[in-house]
Amino acid sequence: MKIAVMSCIHGNYEALDAVLLDIDQQKAEKIFCLGDLVGYGPYPNAVVTQIRSLDIPTCAGCWDEDIVEGLNSCECSYPSLLAEKRGKAAHEWTHQELHDENREFLAQLPHGLSQDNLVFFHGSPQSNHEYLLPELDAFVALERVLSANADVLFCGHTHVPYVRTLDTGSLQVRVEGVGIEAKEISFSAPMKRIINVGSVGEPRHGRPNATYVIYDTDTQEVSLREVPYDYQKTCAAIIEKGLPAIFAWRLAQGLEYAERADDPTHVCTR
Structure pTM? Predict the structure, then answer.
């Protein structure tokens, strides 16, 4: 069976519409969404309404969570005070714009989803805010998949798609302690995979095209899909609706942009 997995739509209805058309052309039988339906983009209600109307299984993203519960992400996720100011402005705009029924939909989204040996999370099984980057330590990466009791872990959040295969191998753990006889435990871990599906609505892989994944559950084949769309229309809407103009620039470039200022007063208080 072919399944489509997408994430990080971020209020970009034009990109979502293009991806849904591509999914239909690929003849996927089921769609999963890994959250972040809102945030940054100009059409949060249109995106949430579309996901609701199509009854797409969706887990909560960090933006979805923060819109419901209030902005509670760790401040050190912002590299500068200016970046934090823009993020909070986008949060406040989205909070005011979102309809009650769409907010309620976001409130009931689960942390994760599963199907057979596949699991789906926005960030990781541990947190919506955790980035599973491709260079993550292999032992930590394997632990994240094993903790979800799965063979394949689908995630988003980084906005950059990749496939990482954790090959079959043997692991050794040595336990030592005062008054405890040293003990070595060996076990084998079968092949596992982490598949990051990138971002539909705010890609950061160097191009403005929307990204998502087609996965064949029979052959385990992964197809990283890249879909062009009229991103200029979304960029114009970002500016028209009064969102920070830099959001339009980075969407057009397919890049993350934030000043790497050293703000000595910007101390995490969480």
Answer: 0.87
